[in-house]
Amino acid sequence: MSTHKTSLLQQRMIEDMDARNLTAGSQRGHLYACKKFAAFLHRPLDTVTREDLRQFQLHLAESEVSTCTRNGIMSGVKFLYRFTLRRLGLAQEIYHPKEPQKIPVILSPTEIKRLLLMARSLQPRTLLSLAYGCGMRAGEVVRLKAGDIDSAQNIIRVVQGKGRKDRNVMLPPQVLKLLRQWWKQRSTRYDKDVVLEERWLFPGRRPNLHLTARQFSRIFKQTVAAAGIKKRVTLHTLRHSFATHLLEDGVDIRYIQALLGHSKLDTTARYALVATGRIAAIESPLDLLARQKGKKRKSKLQ
């Protein structure tokens, strides 16, 4: 495919994604998927046949990519043929295999405490405390501005989180204390002339940019290693742990749903699978039978 033709098709696809309000992350993923498909085909994407799609999907199935990645790639390809090229027959040939349902890894309260203690300085301790103490995603933490912190109402406003949704989360006193300490330390090199409410809480190394989620993830991995935690965890594990610990403490699951910003209760309900404290506290029917048997024996002796 010529470069000119490729750029025209890509531009049309971007316009279609903009018209449907797709996020920047979704757009990057869809464009990457189509480039991957084009590299597999070695010919223009508007000349694709059903057999080409079948072979590409078989190629992904035989590769080492996860089911989640496969589905993400095919979602991008499907967008191209369904909306930009309007070849609905081809779009119908795309399938999405069912993803395995895995229980998220959770850190115990003791491990969380050790993790926070091993943070090298105030910045990583504040970042990690926000992620765990407020259940925020990495991208939501690094995009916080001074105006998002409402100490009068003890809330943090998460502006345009995942799915372009706003929500409020709690502002724990301990997190507020850390934020006030950090505000005195943070660099003002690039934002002296910026309105106070619009300043990034965690400025990046360049003007007008905030700390990236990748940098935050690197900080997390370093702290996990320092804390001696051997579990296979990611930064998102702090959010999983936040939800699970709230559920174990008896917080209503619908409040947890609101704090996490989940559209469906089913998404939040999966934390019941890992709430080990609640699971362990459930009395087995075997114990009930043993107790009833003991009562009968006692009555006969009397």
Tell me what the structure shows.
The structure is a single chain. The model has no long low-confidence stretch (mean pLDDT 91). The protein has two domains: 89 residues, DNA polymerase, domain 1 (Orthogonal Bundle), CATH 1.10.150; 170 residues, Orthogonal Bundle (hpI Integrase, Chain A), CATH 1.10.443.10. The protein starts with a helix and ends with a helix. The chain is mainly alpha-helical and 302 residues long. A three-stranded antiparallel beta sheet has the order 1-2-3. It is built from 15 helices and three strands.
Class per helix and strand makeup: mainly alpha
Q: What is the CATH-assigned architecture of the largest domain?
A: Orthogonal Bundle
Strand content: under 5%
**Distance N to C terminus:** 93 Å
The largest beta-sheet arranges its strands as: 1-2-3
Give the ordered list of helices and strands.
HHHHHHHHEEEHHHHHHH
Helix content: 55-70%
| Number of helical stretches of at least 4 residues | 15
CATH third-tier fold name of the largest domain: hpI Integrase, Chain A
CATH class of the largest domain: Mainly Alpha
Q: Which sheet architecture does the biggest sheet show? A: 3 strands, antiparallel
Question: What quaternary form is this?
Answer: single chain
Radius of gyration: 25 Å
How many β strands by DSSP? 3
Question: How would you sum up this structure in a few lines?
Answer:
With 302 residues, this protein is mainly alpha-helical. It folds into two domains: 89 residues, Tyrosine recombinase, N-terminal domain (DNA polymerase, domain 1, Orthogonal Bundle); 170 residues, Intergrase catalytic core (hpI Integrase, Chain A).
